[in-house]
Specification:
Elements (H helix, E strand, L loop, with lengths): L3 E5 L4 H12 L3 E6 L2 H10 L7 E5 L8 H9 L7 E4 L14 H28 L3 E6 L12 H20 L5 E8 L6 H4 L13 H4 L4 H13 L4 E4 L5 H8 L1 H7 L7
Parallel strand pairs: 1-2, 1-4, 2-3, 4-5, 5-6, 6-7
Helix pairs in contact: 1-8, 3-4, 4-5, 9-10
């Protein structure tokens, strides 16, 4: 029986690349994001090996809609084997310049929206015998970094939530995978919020020279299929994770001088 993967934030970037990667492997897809027309474009580009593709518009800030959305999907597919919580927004603004309402907006999407959606899908996965629940965090979820205070905080918080979920539901055959991408060639910096709460519309130079998004997606798919608990994806920037963990004095020496863009 073909497996089904449900991807949030499937309209662009890593989520879109994951849709193509899973489609090539023959998975059935449930694709979610706010804009239906963009999801339809992604679906048209997916490999025909995917026997079915469901388009399910979803706004992570509209938590009250989640139960109805899940019920609708349940009427169309028998089970969800993999849930990938990829939807979210980034940030490019200094703490001292950022009003609290912008911090709250980032948390509403990246943390509260994400965990609320997981809670809406979780009972269904338990009923149908388990599966994999993946959260797309970031290497900024392993340490703080310039201009990303609340973004980094949300990604740290995902670790606490999804590791706990994995521990509580081992008995239900549910595995959690936390993915930490580094610099990946996506438009995440263009869509990142500035201190006014609006997209910056600027591409980070570091992202332009980062890992191609299709390569990132292939690595993530392999990690999920192996039920990896934690997965780091990127290039030389991943060294900072090791330096922060094992050589903290060196981290505090070099990190203040790294160009945040």
């Amino acid at each position: 029986m073909q497996k089904t993967v449900w991807i949030t934030g499937a309209n662009s970037g890593i989520g879109e690349a994951l849709a193509y990667a899973f489609a090539r492997k023959g998975y059935n897809l449930v694709l979610s994001a706010r804009r239906k027309e963009v999801l339809e474009e992604v679906a048209q580009k997916c490999d025909s090996a995917a026997q079915s593709i469901e388009i399910v518009p979803l706004d992570l800030t509209n938590i009250d809609s989640f139960s109805g959305i899940v019920a609708d999907v349940k009427s169309k597919v028998s089970r969800v084997d993999i849930l990938i919580n990829n939807g979210g927004i980034s940030q490019r603004s200094a703490i001292i310049e950022t009003p609290l309402e912008v911090d709250r907006k980032i948390f509403e999407v990246n943390y509260f929206g994400t965990i609320a959606f997981t809670k809406a899908v979780l009972p269904w996965m338990v009923e149908t015998g388990g599966g994999n629940i993946t959260a797309i965090s970031s290497i900024s979820g392993k340490f703080g970094f310039h201009l990303r205070a609340s973004y980094s905080a949300t990604k740290h918080a995902l670790f606490g939530f999804y590791e706990t979920l994995g521990l509580e539901h081992i008995k239900d055959n549910i595995f959690t995978t936390i993915v930490c991408p580094g610099r990946i060639q996506t438009n995440i910096s263009k869509n990142a919020l500035d201190q006014s709460g609006k997209p910056t519309n600027e591409m980070d130079a570091g992202l332009q020279s980062g890992m191609p998004v299709d390569e990132c997606a292939r690595k993530i798919v392999r990690g999920i299929e192996k039920n990896k608990r934690e997965l780091w994806v990127g290039r030389k920037e991943l060294l900072l994770v090791y330096i922060h963990k094992y050589l903290p004095r060196l981290f505090w020496k070099i990190a203040p001088n790294i160009d945040p863009k």
